[in-house]
Amino acid sequence: xxxxxxxxxxxxxxxxxxxxxxxxxxxxxxxxxxxxxxxxxxxxxxxxxxxxxxxxxxxxxxxxxxxxxxxxxxxxxxxxxxxxxxxxxxxxxxxxxxxxxxxxxxxxxxxxxxxxxxxxxxxxxxxxxxxxxxxxxxxxxxxxxxxxxxxxxxxxxxxxxxxxxxxxxxxxxxxxxxxxxxxxxxxxxxxxxxxxxxxxxxxxxxxxxxxxxxxxxxxxxxxxxxxxxxxxxxxxxxxxxxxxxxxxxxxxxxxxxxxxxxxxxxxxxxxxxxxxxxxxxxxxxxxxxxxxxxxxxxxxxxxxxxxxxxxxxxxxxxxxxxxxxxxxxxxxxxxxxxxxxxxxxxxxxxxxxxxxxxxxxxxxxxxxxxxxxxxxxxxxxxxxxxxxxxxxxxxxxxxxxxxxxxxxxxxxxxxxxxxxxxxxxxxxxxxxxxxxxxxxxxxxxxxxxxxxxxxxxxxxxxxxxxxxxxxxxxxxxxxxxxxxxxxxxxxxxxxxxxxxxxxxxxxxxxxxxxxxxxxxxxxxxxxxxxxxxxxxxxxxxxxxxxxxxxxxxxxxxxxxxxxxxxxxxxxxxxxxxxxxxxxxxxxxxxxxxxxxxxxxxxxxxxxxxxxxxxxxxxxxxxxxxxxxxxxxxxxxxxxxxxxxxxxxxxxxxxxxxxxxxxxxxxxxxxxxxxxxxxxxxxxxxxxxxxxxxxxxxxxxxxxxxxxxxxxxxxxxxxxxxxxxxxxxxxxxxxxxxxxxxxxxxxxxxxxxxxxxxxxxxxxxxxxxxxxxxxxxxxxxxxxxxxxxxxxxxxxxxxxxxxxxxxxxxxxxxxxxxxxxxxxxxxxxxxxxxxxxxxxxxxxxxxxxxxxxxxxxxxxxxxxxxxxxxxxxxxxxxxxxxxxxxxxxxxxxxxxxxxxxxxxxxxxxxxxxxxxxxxxxxxxxxxxxxxxxxxxxxxxxxxxxxxxxxxxxxxxxxxxxxxxxxxxxxxxxxx
Length: 974
Ligand code: GLA
Description:
The protein has 16 helices and 51 strands. Helices cover 19% and strands 29% of the residues. The longest helix has 25 residues, at 26-50. Helix 1 crosses helix 2 (70-78), helix 13 (800-813) runs parallel beside helix 14 and helix 14 (837-844) packs parallel to helix 15. The protein is α+β, with helices and mostly antiparallel strands and 974 residues long. The site of alpha-D-galactopyranose has 11 residues, from loops. It catalyses: Hydrolysis of terminal, non-reducing alpha-D-galactose residues in alpha-D-galactosides, including galactose oligosaccharides, galactomannans and galactolipids. Its EC number is 3.2.1.22.
């Protein structure tokens, strides 16, 4: 039973009380505890050297139970003096209001659904200055013990806010230390004799740095004295980034000698602590998977079935026993019932499984029924694998579960252990069971080309909702993402209500089904689309499905959005912590008419606006005068670029921007050298006409030779000029699912695997290159591609009003820091709608700001205004890109409003849009969510001060007058 965190938060100063139930077992544990306390006391002396020490058992500041992870003791014991402290701190502004307590913020009780808590520790009466890291003695290093918060290790910790670190060490003689640099290379570090102290700032305060994660077994942050191992963001020149590893939240550093060392890493707001992602193997072969705010339970029955027990809010291990004896779950209550996800973790076709199954195969003898029994289970860290083997054939399905913060990832490996071929007719990643509810409402992102990700909500009746793509890419019609809730329309359901959601990380044809049984239970499946699928599994091989991700939120769509954004930022996108640059893309300015002079002119103007990345879109390569030719030949057009792209790239970079180009590697124009040389490299049926789409064919990336060619061609392109970014596009569907290769697998699967392989190899060879994913706009914006691309081009529709609706939906499934948005000319070429510059900028500033207009024709006044918007965006972009999104109003034909709260809570950006005057409305009152009610926020433009409580309970009044009115209000916490 977890101790109640709330009780530890009261103003008090008393020893840490370890709840009896926390003490795993009797005397042994008491002994261990005594040792641990002794260790901690030894640490204390070291702490005294840096700040005011705390006694083991102290409660510091307002709450800060002295936190000590059991593992903390271990390195200290093994390496005397090498102990490590993890210091937690709060920005002093948070404390000043608390009557001299520089303590801690809130730690929500576990029963709040296990949502992340902010933990911090400070020292009463010693306010911490924002920039005081250089000064000694202000911080206290508190030990951190997840268990004391009711969290079992390994806890997942995330630093929020800006991070400061200080290292202090004392050593009688000084000496050398073994260190490992950020690239993993071993090195030596000299340090001075006793009393030396080095400190510095790791991340500058303010808004220009993203949060830094401390995850289990991840190296994180840190620096220390000594030459040679540089870290770019070290400001004081003393050195050095040691590569520190955290294990269970403990930062460790190997010491050679008996000196003392204290690392004091001070996040300004503290550590965000998630419930520990952990997997418990319980009696009766039951497993309880617990992540941040959710639990998932399953069990192997004595008969070898793998039964589903629970998916939803956190439950206790003891509850699993109750679920196991819940007879209502038994299958077979009447002749017509069919085992489904509520009774079986894997519903595999065979017997009475006549509803949507997740797996269907054909054995060599023509048998198409499966009969699986659990064979083994294995837990490794946050991952559980259950192997189900067929009772007759040498075939197995391994079900994988991995806890990732607030998300559960699941996938399946299908194994042919025999010597006869097997064909997979359907191999979904997993089936998901949602519990009984009287009513189910589905939320999904439907759309079309230039109208992607439109938020769609419908009540489900008994029957099956099918969302899918059969186009070889995720497509524009729907995103592989679905959320399900009880649909309480009385409220917006933003702030309350349980929501389950499922996504699929797959950049090809996919299928999600939600089948509501008449008994009110809901079954969701997610996987590669089985449309036209016959995927061979030759003898001795295996195939692993893509990952499906399940995210549960106990408190409505706000929480669900936070969890998806956190998952995507923490576990999916490359360079998660890097601020995305302001982009200029020349597509709408020049279309296919790409000439160096005009591009350079655009580049000059873009640079003057403050753009940081300049991308030349379609039209730069040989033979590309219009849509009809050239795709496939990734060499610059000789007449326009006689010396290649390098001169232009150099000039762009000399203007202070990075340089990128558009490519469409998977397509080929019939009128191209590549197609002329390899007409057999495309998907085609031998006896059927080939389907042209946007005047291209699709290259057969299922073929190893095509993959190798593309890697080589892109490598040559990226080596030919200093290219920093690629916009990777695909503008046609997969139509003829045949590569003509004997014994090949299913093209539907292998094309996507080929795409991933080429992209991965290109990224490997050119790790500095950033990728934008595009497929005629937002046709490929799934989690699979997002693990390989820094951002997505969500739509070709750059009409700022249309974009509000597209972006509104997009941000349900994806973080705004993957959502590119350009300001283009008015009217836009697609909608012909005229929209003022201000509205266009504000709309684009809610995501990754880009500019895509023909700057050569912009007036001086517009250019000057644009430069101001860009500058303003840079002041808020860390808030937009890494902050917490709240949808305040989302009706695109009326008022759309949204806010972003910076990770450290210090800044709020509020956007409001009204396309037309309605009902004589002149102002709107926006009730902001997520602010500190006790804090004071100042309007950066007017200086007006508001309390957080006022902004929440009464609202922020925003004037929206006239058609296409828009407003951006930036509030700084003071
Ligand atoms: C697609 C993309 C556009 C642009 C064109 C170029 O439509 O979505 O952004 O790159 O191709 O042909």
